[in-house]
């Protein structure tokens, strides 16, 4: 990267797996980052809405946090029928994607585990 712009992307020719070839994600990174069609604002479509609207990032983050807290509380299971401690929620789950790198997916997994989710999967394993 030079001056905030991607100048070249290439694979590692010494890699025994890729032998220097880029995966589709790597090959598309340049256009993903530098595309003139790239969105720089949060987009939101209201329930039953037909149009996307811009939202301030702070408002979008508050909406997400409120919904996560509500779903966690609604699906919370503290103990099973025998009184065994569960401390988990079935109110939401997580699905990591291939557009994220391993570190991002790892942190998302840790977050969902800390929130008590038990339905956590990654697209790479499916």
What does this structure look like?
The chain is an alpha+beta fold and 126 residues long. It has helices at residues 24-34, 57-74, 102-114; strands at 42-44, 53-55, 76-79, 85-96, 117-122. The protein is flat and about 60 Å long.
For this entry, give a set of tags:
about 130 residues; two-stranded antiparallel ribbon; single chain; 3 helices; flat; three-stranded mixed β-sheet
Uncertain runs with pLDDT below 50, 5 residues or more? none
Strand % is: 15-25%
Arithmetic mean pLDDT: 86
What is the SS-derived class? alpha+beta
The major β-sheet equals: 3 strands, mixed
Percent helix range: 25-40%
Summary?
The chain is an alpha+beta fold and 126 residues long. 33% of the residues lie in helices and 22% in strands.
Question: What is the strand and helix layout of this fold?
Answer:
Blueprint: H1 24-34, E1 42-44, E2 53-55, H2 57-74, E3 76-79, E4 85-96, H3 102-114, E5 117-122
Parallel strand pairs: 4-5
Antiparallel strand pairs: 1-2, 3-4
